[in-house]
Here is the input.
Amino acid sequence: MTESPLLLQELLRKTAGGDATAFALLYKHTAGKLFGVAIRIAGRGEIAEDALQECFIAVWQRAADYDPIRGAAMSWLIAILRNCIIDRLRRRGVRPEGHAAPEEALRRLAAPDSAEHGAELRALRACLDELEEQPRRAVLLAYLYGLTREELATQLAVPLGTVKSWIRRSLGRLRRCLES
Amino acid sequence: MKYDNPELREQLAAEYVLGTMPPLVRRRFERLLAADPALRRVVEDWTTRFGSIDRATEIEEPPARIWRSVERHLALPRTAARPRWFGSLGFWRGATLAAAAVAAVAIVYIAVRAPPTPTTVVAVLSDDKGDPGWIAQSRAGGDEIAIAPIRSVAVDAAHAFELWAIAGGAPRPLGILPPAPDHPLMVQASALPPDGVLAISVEPAGGSPTGLPTGPVLYKGKMLPRQP
Here is the structure.
C-alpha cells in the first residue's frame, strides 16, 4: 500500500484553507495507517479510537502549522497521533501487559510503503541491533507500546535509574549510528 | 537558560519522541517547543528516525463512527451541494443495484501516481452520505484530467459507471469510467465546466443509450476553484 506524499501534502494544504472535502479525503487516505499505529500502542478499544478522533480534530485545527519543507505529511500526522495516544495513556495510568515481544514485533513489521522508507527501516533495525539486549528492549517497548519509565522498570525487573540511563545511552548511540 | 546545551536538547527531544517523559516534564517541554523552532527541528529529526516503524505498521480499518464524530465535533459543512435535478429524478432511492460495493480495503491508491509530477485535485465526487468516492486530478503542465475511484468499486458486467458534466443545461456525457484506481479515465481539461458539477451514474454497459443519465446517480461533486 502506498499513499502519494504529494497528494497528502496537497490535501493538508487545502484542509488548512478550510476545505472539508480535502479533509475528508485526507482521512480516507491516512486513517487506516494511523489507526494501525494507535492499536499497536494502545491495543484495541476506547483509547485507540478516541486518540484517532482527537488526532483528526487537531489536524483540522492545526493544518496550517504543517510545513512541507520540514518533512512528509505522513510523519506530521503520525507525530500528532502519537502525542494524542501518549497523553491518553498517561492519564489512564498503569496498563495491563500483554503485547507481543518487541523484537518479534519489529521483525513482523509489514513491508514499508516505499523504497525510501524500506531503507530507513533497515538502517534503524541495523542500529537497534548494535544496542545491548535489555536497553534495546527498553527503547522498543517504549516506542512500540508506549510504556512509561516505571512500566519499563517493572517489566524488565530493574531499578528506575537503570531504565533512565539505558534509554539515555541507547538514544545517543542510535543517533550516532544513524548519522554515520 | 539551561536548555541551550546541545546534548541536553538532543536527549530531551529523543525522549519526547520516544514517549518516556513524565507527563509534567512533557508539558514543560511542549511549551519550550512552541517557542523554539530549532528545537522543533531536533524533534522532527527523531520523528523521522523512528517513523519508519509506524509507516510499516499494519493498516487497521477504523470504525465509521470515528469519522462521524470528527465531522460532528467540528460541525463540518457537507461537501458539494446536491443539484436540484438529482433529487427530482428520484435518483437516490433504490440506488443500490449495481453500485458501489466498496472494497473493504482501508487505504488506497490515488490514480495518478506513475510520474511524480505535482497534481492538483480539481473535483472530488462524493456519494449521498458525503463520502468521497472518486477524484479528478490534473497534472502540472498537462491539459488532461484523470478521473479514478479512490478505491476499487464493484459493478456487474451488464453495467458501467458513466461520467457527466453539468453546467446549466442538460448533462453532457464525458465517458465510461474504469472501476479501478490505477486506470483513470482521461478527459481534456477543456471539456470540464469550470463552475459546474461532475456526476457519475450507473448505466448499461457501453454507456447510456439516450445520451442522458438513465440510471441512479451515485456520486457528484462541484469543480473546485482553480488555484491561482
Q: What stands out?
A: Residues 20-42 of chain A form the longest helix (23 residues). The domain at 100-180 of chain A is CATH 1.10.10.10 (Arc Repressor Mutant, subunit A). Chain A touches chain B through 71 residues (CB under 8 Å). The CA atoms of residues 111 and 117 of chain A lie 9 Å apart.
